[in-house]
Amino acid sequence: MSGNEKTAKILGYAGLIPFVVFSVGCWVALPLVSDASQILIAYAALILSFMGAVHWGVAMTYDEENRSKYFIASVIPVLAAWPALFAPETFAFIILIVGFILLIAYDWYVNKPQGLPDWYISMRNVLTVVVVICLNAALVSLHLN
């Protein structure tokens, strides 16, 4: 494993900590936290936007002719995530869950054409599964707490 891959994986997996902490916080009171679900929604929206921006960076490496579709695809996650910040919590979680699922499907689709590193998609698979589980747990907590 290269140093860059190791750094990316450490940062990627560390980024799951708020998802886990605040999804648990939707079920049990956390010290100094008044609204874990709103914090989780905001964090998930930021991360979904960031993950879309990965494709903006990749698009900049292509020749002029092939860039447009990747630039367009890279901004769709933020356009989906932003309304989640203002939607009622149930709809916000649904928007974010669907957003993360669609983004990983897009990643699978463009993995080879964009020449993403071999380790990237396997890491994204794990990250997405954990994120979707956390968001679903928080969504369920809204209706069972």
Description of the molecule:
There is one protein chain. This protein has 145 residues and is an all-alpha fold. The protein has one domain. It is 77% helix and 0% strand. It has six helices and no strands. The longest helix has 27 residues, at 118-144. The chain is globular.
Short description:
The protein is mainly α and 145 residues long.
List the main descriptive attributes of the protein structure presented here:
about 140 residues, about 75% helix
Number of strand segments: 0
- Strand-residue fraction? under 5%
The backbone outline, from C-alpha atoms, is globular
> Count the helices. How many?
6
**Helix content range of the residues, please?**
over 70%
The ordered string of helix (H) and strand (E) elements is HHHHHH
Straight-line N-to-C gap: 43 Å
Count of domains? 1
Largest sheet, in brief, is: none
Summarize model confidence as the mean pLDDT. 92
List the uncertain runs: none
Question: What structural class results from the helix and strand content?
Answer: mainly alpha
Radius of gyration: 16 Å
Topology overview:
Elements lengths: L2 H12 L1 H10 L10 H24 L8 H17 L4 H22 L7 H27 L1
Helix pairs in contact: 1-6, 2-3, 2-6, 3-4, 3-5, 4-5, 5-6
